[in-house]
Amino acid sequence: MFGQIISAIFAGNAIVIKVSEYASWSAVYYSNIVKAVLQALGHGPNIVQIVTGYGATGDALVRSGVDKLTFIGSPEVGKIVMRSAADNLTPVVLELGGKDAAIICDDCDFNQVSTATCRGNPSPDSDTL
């Protein structure tokens, strides 16, 4: 989620994120973090909006006339998003079915790599996980 937020803001855009209904419990927590960071940096906290809901909420967002969509999730739902977006010719980026795959080389620090890959969130530093 943070990668999409950072990309949107750096490109000069606001962003609306619809989280999975299975992750809605954490949306308020992440929203508060993002809004606090934006305010601390002198930006309006409302340029990032996090929305919760079921499929109908997501469909309403897809059909709302947004300029671009990014969907991260299952191939089945990705097909639905793509079909809905096609009605308005909305550009879509689909990231489907992945589980944070990694290539681990023989000369790595195995303890560091195993910890990072089990966490599922490698460091943005390309030299370390």
Report on this structure:
This protein is of the alpha/beta class and 129 residues long. It has helices at residues 2-10, 24-40, 55-62, 75-86, 110-119; strands at residues 15-18, 48-51, 69-73, 92-96. The chain has a two-stranded parallel ribbon with strand order 1-2. Helix 2 (24-40) links the parallel strand 1 and strand 2 (48-51). It is globular, with a radius of gyration of 17 Å. The two termini are 18 Å apart. 6% of the residues are buried. Mean pLDDT is 84; it is low at 122-129.
Q: State the end-to-end CA separation.
A: 18 Å
Helix fraction bin: 40-55%
Counted beta strands: 4
Number of separate helices: 5
Please state the structural category: alpha/beta
Task: Give a quick account of the main beta sheet: strands, pairing sense, barrel closure.
Answer: 2 strands, parallel
Radius of gyration: 17 Å
Q: How is the largest sheet built, in terms of strand order?
A: 1-2
Describe this protein with a few key phrases.
two-stranded parallel sheet, 129 residues, disordered C terminus, alpha/beta
Topology overview:
Layout: H1 2-10, E1 15-18, H2 24-40, E2 48-51, H3 55-62, E3 69-73, H4 75-86, E4 92-96, H5 110-119
Parallel strand pairs: 1-2, 3-4
Short description:
The protein is 43% helix and 14% strand.
